[in-house]
């Protein structure tokens, strides 16, 4: 039996598939030892799991902005540890990650050791992707000041740059006990930046049932509106008008999978997975 799962999505998230704003945080204006930073209007928290990570500004010229040395970055100086781990996390905001530069070494800042790096993306505590890189790390200062580019458009052959998350977790392994991170390039999309109070105060509700469905479904709305069905990669598959009250629809022609039901106005929360 076909089982199709729907996500209903609010008007505040209408630009989910629109062009996002790419920004690179170089940390140069952030305060030394701060556990937070702000970029493009979004506040990020640096959450330490193993070791203590915060903004480092005590060693000028030891960062890397992608093209040249710079002065500030995130690291765990003074608290190097096996399996060092931290997260870059927002509250009330969502984002996507393009790339960042990472410095990995042992306690003595020797980079010519064997280790690995695990990159994990989470959304509301749920892991959306995880990948462990074991080779290709810079082993000396060289032309990038000792930093290795971690490109999420091609991390071990996989593209994770389009996955929406609210937390990026970095974990070192093996002999890598010191971690420095700089030039954090991420994507902000006004359609996926949603304050928690906006979810609570919206007046219009949108209900979809049964969910999952094998074809027929009912959509209940509190106003006349238009509904659009998208695939997860943003392709418009179907659209139809809806009247206030309960509307009947059928998506039997769609293959098994997860789809997104979007309205230009209506519910302001994600419901019905």
Automatic annotation (TrEMBL):
| Signal sequence interval, chain numbering | 1-20
* Stored InterPro entries: Secre_tail (IPR026444)
Give every Secretion system C-terminal sorting domain span: 208-273
**Metal-binding keyword on record:** no
Keyword field: Signal
Top-level lineage group: Bacteria
Instruction: Look up keyword ATP-binding and say if it applies.
Output: no
- Which residue windows are transmembrane per the record? none
Q: What is this protein's name?
A: T9SS type A sorting domain-containing protein
Source species, please?
Chryseobacterium pyrolae
């Amino acid at each position: 039996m076909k089982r199709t799962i729907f996500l209903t999505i609010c008007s505040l998230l209408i630009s989910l598939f629109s062009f996002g704003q790419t920004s690179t945080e170089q940390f140069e204006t952030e305060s030394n030892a701060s556990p937070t930073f702000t970029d493009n209007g979004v506040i990020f928290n640096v959450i330490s799991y193993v070791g203590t990570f915060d903004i480092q500004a005590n060693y000028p010229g030891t960062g890397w902005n992608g093209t040249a040395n710079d002065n500030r970055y995130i690291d765990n100086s003074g608290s190097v540890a096996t399996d060092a781990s931290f997260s870059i996390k927002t509250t009330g905001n969502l984002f996507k990650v393009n790339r960042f530069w990472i410095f990995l070494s042992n306690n003595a800042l020797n980079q010519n050791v064997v280790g690995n790096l695990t990159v994990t993306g989470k959304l509301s505590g749920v892991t959306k992707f995880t990948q462990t890189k074991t080779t290709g790390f810079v082993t000396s200062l060289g032309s990038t000041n000792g930093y290795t580019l971690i490109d999420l458009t091609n991390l071990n052959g996989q593209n994770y740059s389009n996955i929406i998350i609210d937390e990026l977790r970095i974990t070192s392994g093996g002999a890598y006990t010191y971690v420095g991170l700089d030039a954090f390039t991420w994507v902000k999309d006004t359609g996926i930046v949603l304050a928690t109070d906006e979810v609570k105060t919206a007046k219009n509700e949108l209900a979809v049932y049964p969910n999952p469905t094998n074809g027929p479904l009912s959509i209940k709305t509190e106003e006349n509106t238009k509904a659009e069905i998208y695939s997860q990669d943003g392709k418009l598959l179907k659209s139809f008008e809806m009247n206030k009250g309960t509307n009947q629809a059928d998506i039997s022609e769609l293959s098994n999978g997860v789809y997104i039901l979007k309205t230009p106005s209506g519910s302001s929360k994600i419901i019905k997975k």
